[in-house]
Design brief:
- The complex is a heterodimer.
- Chain A is of the alpha+beta class.
- Chain A folds into 2 domains: about 170 residues, TM1070-like (Hypothetical Protein Tm1070, Chain: A); about 100 residues, Sandwich (Immunoglobulin-like), CATH 2.60.40.
- Chain A contains 6 helices and 19 strands.
- In chain A, the strands form 4 sheets. In chain A, strands 1, 3, 4, 6, 7 and 10 form a 6-stranded mixed β-sheet that branches. In chain A, strands 11, 12, 14, 15 and 17 form a 5-stranded antiparallel β-sheet that branches. Chain A has a 4-stranded antiparallel β-sheet with strand order 5-2-8-9.
- In chain A, a hairpin with a 5-residue loop joins β8 and β9.
- Chain A is globular and about 60 Å long.
- Chain B is mainly β.
- Chain B has 5 helices and 19 strands.
- The longest helix of chain B has 16 residues.
- The chains are: A alpha+beta, B mainly beta.
- The interface between A and B is large, with 64 and 64 residues.
Chain lengths: ~290, ~325
Amino acid sequence: MSSTAVRDRVRTLASSTNQRLMTRLVQSRRVPRVAFQHYFIETAGLHSRVMLQNFYSTFWPHLGAQATARIDVFTPDGRRVGRYEERLAPFGSLFLEAKDLLTRVGAELDEGSLTIDLEPPPGVLDELASFPLAEPWTLRISTPFWMAYYDGDENYMYVHSIDRQVGEFYGVPAPVGWFLSRRFGVPGGSWRAGRLLDTGGLKELQIVAINHGAVQRTSTVGLFDAVTDDPVWTAKHTFAPHALQRFAVPPETLSERSLQVRVGVDPLATINGKPYVLMRYGDGPLSLHHG
Amino acid sequence: MVVPSTLVFDPRFVRTCTFATLHTPGYGSRVTLFNGVRPGETFATPFTVSMSAFDRDGAYLGESEPFLHLDPGAAAKVDVDEILQGMTSGSGEPLRDVLGIVHLVPDRWLGARTCEVTPPELMAHMLTTDDFVEYYSYRGDVVTGVAYQTGPMNDARLSSTRTTTIQAPKIIVSDRVDTIFLLMNTSTSLDYDNEVVLRFRILAPTGESLVASSISVPAFTFRLLSTRRVLEEAGALGRFRELGGCGTLFGLAANGTVVPLSMTRNDASGAIAVDHTLPPTYYVSTWGGDMRKQGNARLAEALFADVPEQVAG
């Protein structure tokens, strides 16, 4: 047997062992859960609000059960500074101001990030454990949510969480969580936004990049000519695990040129960790989108 | 279900981007199109791009001349208003509020009435990128938008059950802010004629139901659902504001797929927050098949048993 064949055989055995282990875990009501990491800002005239629904009610409404949201707050350099928990009623939702959240965890931050894990009611785990899933080892629960950003005139922007944080795996024993996190959070590749931005009239442009991963990563964030891909403006930055950086593109970069550009990151810190883009045309309100 | 290995398609629907224009509310539309299957990759092809438009009743208004050629890996932004200026309705009126479908036709099928395409090729073109639909205000400096995919929808060959589940904790209503749901009903053939009925509830953060109603979206149309208006009509706006002015829309369509976008708009400035919702698999990775069917049945029973599947008025 060739060395390649031996390696393939070992991989297959490991894979089938892992599948059996994960299947047993799911059938014993231990379902891996992973949290999304999202940005908040409480400066520059902007406020942030968490928006989350009890999605277990949508899928298992007959249980009529509350669910607990576990919210972790992180500094811009990626340190966790506190945890807050709140119960969501059946079909209930959470609209939590970032400033209130910061007060509750005793943190003074102008910006940062947070993760949410919505812990399932026991009945949900019973349902999942007993359901005849074709591939139980692939089951994961995640808690995507929205953040609204708004100014003092009630001009709103909002966007869904874009990537899961490579960190704590909930719902499974710690060694299993560690194992799962190893296979998760690999770096992304060179990335260009699917949106072409017109620089004419663009007065303000900020890019917020987050390292959702658990290891330090270095990326170049920038604006690139939509036709030639030549850099118009770039900044290289090393991100600690779970850290973020808000880049303000110099206004003269925008005003000196009238062309179409794309936001880009080389490489994304994680597969889907696309940045947030804050823009203002003329004297208009800010708008925000992913990538 | 077993998806056929090849599908007979109108080539104009192999790769599409569907959107609504918002002329009457005061916005022009631009779309960034990206040919995301890059040179050398499987299924890479240049596209010739044109656009069809449909009126409020879903009547087909016609197709533009090709206006763009997009090589593999290339991106381009098109101004939809400019394209619409080159098209007129049967009455000669300029086209304004329409459901638009941009057709990105692989060059090898240009001009053909039908083509045979494999599901992997369909998926390759859909999954490589979102299209970015941008709205800009006529009166000022609002430029906003959202990226989303409108792949092959409402096609029985590709999905045995065509349903929509919406859970959107994005309703914000105040004196000057309204949250509007934009619902689009599109498909893969001009013969499609299914009217999708979405039953919905607006719930307060406490889980208290404040509105139960439904909205009908005919084939190849879009509808704008103002949550402020439905709360007002239900006499529930005061209660909604009393409970914080934020809430969640839960919706279920049992007879088809609609594309839901939420738009939170400031009446004074025209600013719009816009985003799509998230499919169930974002929450529970294995959601689908029997699990989805059973879940939808439970949701229909729990939330919508007393909400008729027809729209009054």
